[in-house]
Amino acid sequence: MGMTIAEKILKAHLVDGEMVKGQEIGLRIDQTLTQDATGTMAYLQFEAMGVDQVRTERSVAYIDHNTLQSGFENADDHKFIGTCAKKHGIYFSKPGNGICHQVHLERFGKPGKTLIGSDSHTPTGGGIGMLAFGAGGLDVAVAMGGGAYYIPMPKMVRVTLTGSLQPWVAAKDIILEVLRQMTVKGGVGKIVEYAGPGVATLSVPERATITNMGAELGATTSVFPSDEVTRDFLRAQGREEDYTPLASDPDAVYDEEYTVDLDKLAPLAAKPHMPDQVEEVASIGKIKINQCCIGSCTNSSYYDMMKVAAILKGKKVHPDVSLTISPGSMQVFNMLAQNGALSDIIQAGARILECACGPCIGMGQSPESAGVSLRTFNRNFEGRSGTQDAKIYLVSPEVAAASAIAGVLTDPRELGEAPQIDMPETFVIDDGMIIPPAENPDEVEVIKGPNIKEFPLGHELEESISTKVMLKTEDNITTDHILPAGSKLLPYRSNIPYYSDYCFIHVDPKFPARCKELGGGVIVGGSNYGQGSSREHAALVPLYLGIRAVVAKSFARIHKANLVNSGIIPLTFKNPEDYDGIDLLDGVTFPNIRAEIESGSDVTVVIGGKTILTECELSDRQRSAILEGGTLNYTRKNAK
Fold this sequence. Notes:
Layout: H1 5-13, E1 14-16, E2 24-27, E3 31-35, H2 36-49, E4 58-62, H3 72-88, E5 91-93, H4 100-107, E6 114-117, E7 131-134, H5 137-144, E8 149-152, E9 155-162, H6 171-182, E10 190-195, H7 204-212, E11 221-223, H8 228-236, E12 256-261, E13 268-270, E14 278-280, H9 281-284, E15 291-294, H10 302-312, E16 322-325, H11 330-339, H12 341-347, E17 351-352, E18 372-375, E19 391-394, H13 397-406, E20 434-435, E21 465-472, H14 479-482, H15 496-499, H16 511-518, E22 522-525, H17 537-544, E23 549-552, H18 557-566, E24 569-573, E25 587-590, H19 593-599, E26 603-607, E27 610-615, H20 620-628, H21 631-639
Parallel strand pairs: 3-4, 3-6, 4-5, 6-7, 9-10, 9-12, 10-11, 15-16, 15-18, 16-17, 18-19, 21-22, 22-23, 23-24
Antiparallel strand pairs: 1-2, 2-8, 5-20, 13-14, 21-25, 24-27, 25-26, 26-27
Helix pairs in contact: 2-3, 2-5, 6-7, 10-12, 10-13, 17-18, 20-21
């Protein structure tokens, strides 16, 4: 029986376990990346492990999230990450050099390699034929130290692309169509692989847009073949030697299959407030808009920006619309400036932002009250933009640019002939803002500012636990619900005590105070609990507040792993109807919690006076970590 692309890469990197669906496997990791909103914690954890130099082929620290330096906090984090990188063998991408996923695709990504990053959109690397995973910061720290990265062996999904995109239809529309078919829960526990004749018609940046938003499916990762299109991209980046051909075998077997006919796709939009609420732009209608934001790690490539410049050339942004442009990297920005496209964008009335994540994470450009914002980003969760009642639509750069001119949501096919943009034969290459590690690391001092606090650690699991329900949530709670981002709070990612006052504030403002008054307890959740960003703070901060377990209908993959890493027990209802009978502040007792976790049996919970059964679906390694109070404690113990 043949193998899929993903299975080939997994087999080549397997260091622990067997490739049996659902069983845990350990992988050797070739490359890692971090960004500054999660990187500080990852490097504090790396230092706590006592490893002197990273043991990967390439590790890169990017500054792209907290670039609004309205106080000392962000700059101090950058100094810490920069000095830590220099000392421990990590490359450091300075603020302004670009968004981690865009820069990594341009300068470091290699087909057939494994990559994990402390950002949920690390699967962007699948556009160049990598097996790239979003992970928690501790998982990245362990990989940098030479440890394996553990995941349940995923199922394999093939999405066959037929035909070719019609004028004004974009790669963004492909992934929106996949989201429409599979939903935000449909990819959980699966790797999505793209195949079919339509693949050859897509450039690497277009493929990366699709794998980037595979995170919104809940997928473990997504991947494209490495073919002549990949070789051309690497050659244009001056890296043809990094090319390796990679394809699935003709007789490879998949667990699920979907088909997208590119010939029949129309411009699409994801409506508020979920990426799978997809409808054709034409059928949504010409709703009045207030803002368009073009950029983010999904749609900020040179290819995307040139299409936008061509649409805007000689036109003006509607007087009632604010249009922002965030180039994905210094390379993209520089090339736009050199070829005159930047002038076309500026003359149209666009606002040019830094090469950074910016509005995608609520770092500026929050819409007006109840405003309608079209964004080429990957998430439109309620409140993520920084304005709680804003209505956010996810669209392609073509739709955003056409709508910015018209002042209403616009199908770009109304503009007539579509611009033809070709990929450049040579990119402008300047790695001057990527700082290599020190040749004499012993001479480097790691500098920690006053906002950088120690991270919380769990403790050894007791025989039994008695506590209370601190919070009950609905389905599809995101990590943005658990811990909001934005310019006011992201600077405190390094300060867990401060950040804890904002945990779940948009779900229940009294949650932090309740936990501090009562000493913590248990969270009860619905299905897909913890979807969205990989931020491990969504586990670390509840740990700081004394949360011992989360009992939910189901979990998003990365968040469940982060809970285990932090020592918080993830439990799922054996009977989902038991969720309905639970109320806030109900008493909760786990009478045999340690023995049941240790044996792998169902976990008994007495909640609100009723005894129910829950499942704790963990690997033996994860069970050991829970017993020790988290992965770091477990790693330290087993390193002795």
